[in-house]
Task: structure prediction
Amino acid sequence: MAKIKIPPVLRPSVGGEREVSASGENVGEILRDLADSHPATADQLFSADGELNRYVNVYLNDEDVRVLDGLDTAVADSDTVVILPAMAGGR
Amino acid sequence: MSPSSADLLRQVKSEIDEVDPSEVNELLQEGVPIIDVRETEELASGILPGAKHVPRSYLETRIEGIVPDRSAHVILYCASGNRSAYGARTLRDDLGYEHVESMTGGIALWKDRGYDVDVPRTLSAEQRDRYSRHLLIPEIGSEGQQKLLDAKVLLLGAGGLGSPTALYLAAAGVGTLGIVDDDVVDLSNLQRQVIHSTQRVGIPKVDSAEESIHALNPDVKVVKYPVRLDASNIMEIIEGYDVIVDGVDNFPTRYLLNDATVRLQIPVVSASILGFDGQLSVFKPYEGPCYRCLFREPPPAELAPSCGANGVLGVLPGTMGLLQATEVVKLILGIGDPAIGRLLLYDALAATLTEVKVHRDPECPICSRPPDEISDEEMGVFPDYEAFCAAAG
Result:
């Protein structure tokens, strides 16, 4: 089970947790496992055609999965997946 | 019998290596470190071009910060070559510098020979006192402090992030602080916006901020822009600033700012906060990624809690704002590793600071092209600009 760091905007969709575990061989499977366990996250992560939404950045540890193998990037149990949508609060 | 001071000087000069100004003039071009060991008040008449100033009395304590390598070639000089001779002996015998020389005749002979000097702008006695803790750091010193005094930094917002940033940049002696904010101070701001005060509720934030800045440091020039940044005024406002501090609370302005700063090649120190979480990165156009490389598209309104009021831990903008202020100072001084190409994620509840890499996007709609090809019409182009915040309510 890899760890997933949940950003503030998605926390209401996972019962307020800041970090959850999910299983899968690669980033896509991990995120789908998250979406299966917490269906409210599905629309926020994936577009209608099943691709990762362009406004959501996903990192495997500290590297953007877009420069790795995207959703096919292999994930080990010791890895952390970071989900990161843009934030704009400043006041 | 004890030696006279003239005897001692003769003896010291016989033990150390001296170098003629003509040779120093050549070594200067090669980048050999040259240290002026005179007192601060003697510098007004000029120093050797590129020389570093370390008063003789601080030589032992500060030399390592300037010349860490004991085997490096180092040249010392003073007014006439006496104090630098003593300094050279100390560096060699007590600190183990292997190749240290004293310039014969000091700056007096250098000038007699007709070589160039730089006339440094010197700090006033009051400034030397005010910024003394900066002057003690080798990476800053009076040269760095002068850079700070010459710097022009624009703060977008005198709110949560802008408050601590403005106060600390003012304290650090950043010479010009521009502040863009069209809001007035509200009681609900004071849980985190520490530049304002209870007495100043209801007055424009730019005026309130100016009052606090001048109370802290009258050296600082404050330029007030009591407007909302938009496509019609952004180029005029930001042009001429060295660094911009982004603390704006909405996506359309962040994208607009990105596009304009890429075009003008001005670095932006960007941070955002929500709840207990903060993000920070430095966007330096063409050296690293821009904001659109990081976030090509804004999230849909329901995932972008930035249009209305949202909760934030009161101390969090303090933490993030001061990380921003630190990056600003580093950029001005040209020291350290700014957070270019890195996004720092601060989780206040977990007390963790993690970072992820941000890459330049070769297909970035803005920074993949030369700055002069970015047109007015393209700047800040943002899908469904009006609908965006309306949908968020």
